[in-house]
Write a structure and sequence with these properties.
The chain is of the alpha/beta class. The chain has two domains: 259 residues, 2-Layer Sandwich (Beta Polymerase, domain 2); 75 residues, Nucleotidyltransferases  domain 2 (Four Helix Bundle (Hemerythrin (Met), subunit A), Up-down Bundle). 48% of the residues lie in helices and 7% in strands. The chain has 15 helices and five strands. Strands 1, 2, 3, 4 and 5 form a five-stranded mixed β-sheet that branches. Helix 3 packs antiparallel against helix 4. The chain starts with 13 loop residues before the first helix and ends in a 5-residue tail after the last helix. One of its GO terms (cellular component) is cytosol. It comes from Rothia kristinae. Keywords: ATP-binding, Magnesium, Multifunctional enzyme, Nucleotide-binding, Nucleotidyltransferase, Transferase. This is Glutamate-ammonia-ligase adenylyltransferase.
Length: 390
């Protein structure tokens, strides 16, 4: 007899229930045979989700820069409905898992890949909408870089999606004979590239969590970008590189450990990683690097209200952030010379560090199974309602 899983990814989300009430035609997601989740190991992204969500807005998944046929509320409704149908399938598979701890990494990766697919489809809608007034947007490439849990493919049901954006001139697709540069076309100036990139991002964001007939999906959070809220929303790859070289702080390199292209132009995404990754692995050579990372962790702990410190499993002493900070610090120190520990996910990184015998005094880490139990960011009510409760 199967028992309900006890991981943080599980518990049938209450919002999935309200989604089924709003869309009774989707009830067969519960009554039919559960679909097996796609295989995620050894893959950067699950293609199935990308193809399904692009098609639901009338975009061609085979194009490098897909453009939707539907726009506005119609596209918003189609995307959010298709996303929640896929989310319900993941939740059902989670609930029926024989061993939820074994399935934890697959569930988290599927959630991250589904979020990336939603951003891809939203970008296709944004391209169609912006093209109505600015046709030259077809000459703009945008890469969406996943950060945090999404970048590491360890997303949970109640996570926001942290992103960074890179913009550049679109290059003709070598696999598409019809995709050629117009004759006498002048390159777009950087200022115009950035302006159009920002318009795409704002339109994309509106599709994901703007007001509409179907509730918003989640917040798209770009605050990890260079200069945070005070910085430009999008930058060219050269601008990202210059920032890393001259101004980036140690905590920013720590955050970039999780960076992964999740939507948009794949070539531009690779260029972004090639530009910033070398700085990440050189960071530990900075004077006072270890001390500054430890000081950052203490500042996080110091901001926890006294009444919450004993029960803060996320930010408190010995909580999830302590595990993540420790793993990331070890990665940054040893990854400078050992590429085998240059991994993104916390569990994956723990395994890599343990295999190479890199650990703090006290012995080899033994957190592989307990960690998923603590993975949800909050109380059971948060997972049940698909929202944070504290």
């Amino acid at each position: 007899m199967r028992r309900p899983p006890c991981t943080g990814c599980s518990a049938p989300p209450r919002r999935s229930g309200t989604f089924l009430l709003r869309r009774p035609s989707t009830l067969d997601l519960l009554t039919g045979d559960p679909q097996r989740l796609p295989e995620v190991r050894g893959q950067e992204m699950t293609r199935q989700y990308r193809e399904d969500l692009l098609r639901c807005v009338g975009a061609d998944p085979e194009q490098r820069m897909p453009v939707a046929e539907t726009t506005g509320e119609q596209a918003q409704l189609a995307l959010r409905t298709a996303y929640r149908a896929a989310l319900t399938r993941i939740a059902v598979a989670d609930l029926l898992a024989e061993d939820p701890l074994v399935e934890f990494e697959r569930i988290a990766a599927c959630l991250a890949d589904l979020a990336g697919a939603a951003l891809e489809a939203a970008l296709a809608v944004a391209r169609a909408e912006i093209a109505q007034t600015s046709p030259e947007v077809s000459r703009v490439a945008l890469a969406v870089i996943g950060m945090g849990k999404c970048g590491a493919r360890e997303l949970n049901y109640i996570s926001d999606v942290d992103v960074i954006y890179a913009v550049g001139p679109a290059q003709p697709d070598p696999d598409d004979a019809d995709d050629v540069e117009p004759e006498n076309a002048q390159p777009l100036e950087e200022q115009r590239l950035v302006q159009l990139g920002e318009e795409l991002v704002r339109a994309l964001t509106q599709v994901i969590h703007g007001v509409g007939p179907e509730p918003a999906l989640w917040e798209v959070d770009a605050n990890l970008r260079p200069e945070g809220k005070d910085g430009p929303l999008v930058r060219t790859v050269d601008s990202h590189r210059a920032y890393c070289r001259r101004w980036a702080e140690n905590w920013e390199f720590q955050a970039l450990l999780k960076a992964r292209p999740i939507a948009g132009d794949p070539q531009l995404g690779r260029q972004y990683l090639e530009a910033v990754t070398p700085f990440v692995w050189e960071a530990s050579g900075r004077e006072g690097f270890v001390g500054s990372v430890q000081a950052m962790r203490r500042r996080v702990s110091d901001h926890i209200p006294e009444a919450e410190r004993e029960r803060q499993i996320k930010l408190g002493i010995g909580g999830l952030r302590d595990v993540e900070f420790t793993v990331q610090l070890l990665q940054l120190v040893h990854g400078r010379t050992d590429e085998q520990v240059r991994t993104r996910g916390t569990l994956e990184s723990l395994r890599a560090l343990a295999e190479r015998s890199y650990h703090l005094p006290g012995g080899r880490p033994r957190l592989r199974r307990p960690l998923p139990l603590a993975a949800p960011a909050g109380a059971p009510g948060a997972a049940a309602q698909l929202r944070r409760t504290h």
